[in-house]
Amino acid sequence: MSSSNTSAVPDKSPEKKRRYLSAEKKFQIYLEAQDGGKPVGELLRREGLFSTDLARIRQPVKEGALQRLSAKPGCQQGHVSTEVHEAISYLMTGQKGEYLYLYLLL
Q1: CB–CB of 57/29 below 8 Å?
Q2: CB neighbours of residue 28 within 10 Å
Q3: Angle at CA of residue 24, ends 21 and 64, nearest 5°
């Protein structure tokens, strides 16, 4: 039996370029998936995504929501560096001779 040397090697098509979605687009896809009006499979086919891609979108949305919802209400106070604190305390004690020097530090 003679076998031909033609192997079934598929032609190399141009490689697909990686698609990057903006945060806004990812959130839009997330909202559509959560809507429940249409099947999720239809959404994934339309957007050219896999179910794992949707899972990767859902995870940061969940983490971000939990972070924002667990934050305590009110204004978050910022931290002041030691140098700035010392400069302000010098100004508050009335040492006017140091004012210009401290102003330049700030």
Answers
A1: yes
A2: 13
A3: 105
What are the b/e assignments for 11-26, b being 16+ CB within 10 Å?
A: eeeeeeeeeeeeeeeb
- List pLDDT tens digits, range 14-61: 777 778 899 999 999 999 999 888 899 999 999 999 999 999 999 999
Mean pLDDT (the chain) is 79
Sign of the CA dihedral 51, 19, 46, 36? positive
CA-based nearest residue to 62, from 28, 35, 38, 27: 27
State the residue for tokens 């559509």: 32
Domain boundaries, the chain: 23-70
Look at residue 49 and give its three-state secondary structure: coil
Structure tokens at 88: 């302000």
d(CA 86, CA 105) in angstroms, rounded, equals 11
